[in-house]
Amino acid sequence: MRDHLGNFMVSADLQFARGVILLDDMSNDSAWEAAGTGADFSVAKDASAAFVGAYGLLVKTRVTGPAENDVVTAQRYGEYPESGLLVVRAMVGLPDASLLKQVRMFVFADSGAAQVSGTVKWVQATGQVAYGDAGSVYQDVTGMVLPWYDLFWWRWELVVDVRAAAYREVAICGYRADLGGIGMVSGATAGWRGTYFGFELMAAGAAQAVAYLDSLYVGEFLHV
Question: N or C: which end of the chain has fewer CB within 10 A?
Fold first, then answer.
């Protein structure tokens, strides 16, 4: 049979299907690398954060001395996409969106000769979705102003062409925008070949910000 959106033949276990870089049901939080403001931010599997299955990833800014603009980032690593076309999809839930300034999803891809990066963010105060352009300046996505409802789950999707250093599409909560060849940040290689992808929260004020992340898919994307 064929992959759900591509032209790859799949194995019985999609984890080993050609074109699939990662499927993550968040049952193993030790696979995630975490960074953030302060010392007691956290990124860990938790039953309360599950979209489906037993666990989701519970992502929280620091508890001690919380402040505006505190951040926490969760990221994972994977291989370089053979085709150069890459999609990152995940389900995101916010139990209290008012405590967040913004949510960001990003991807870096290093071919061993050059590194490119793309990012998309949602800003809580305005509901605006924006992408980072080739000069690392955020540009609003026309028509994507999305008010968040607490305890809802939204599917986030970012599609990029890492060989062309260009965006293809962004989709959040059923709203899809064609970014048609808009350039991504491009720079020197870090000396390795692969990808890493991540999820970041920023706190709106002096209170801990929390988000749920589940059902992550990272893989090559041929249905364009």
Answer: N
Query: Alpha-carbon distance 92 to 77, whole Å?
Result: 19
CB 85 within 8 A of CB 218: no
User: Where in the chain does DSSP place strands (E)?
Assistant: 20-24, 33-36, 42-46, 56-60, 71-78, 85-93, 100-111, 114-123, 128-132, 138-145, 153-161, 166-172, 175-178, 185-188, 193-203, 210-220
Domains of the chain, each with CATH number or no CATH: 24-220 (2.60.120.200)
Sign of the dihedral through C-alpha 105, 78, 221, 217: negative
In terms of pTM, does the model score above 0.90?
no
Query: What three-state secondary structure class fits 159?
Result: strand
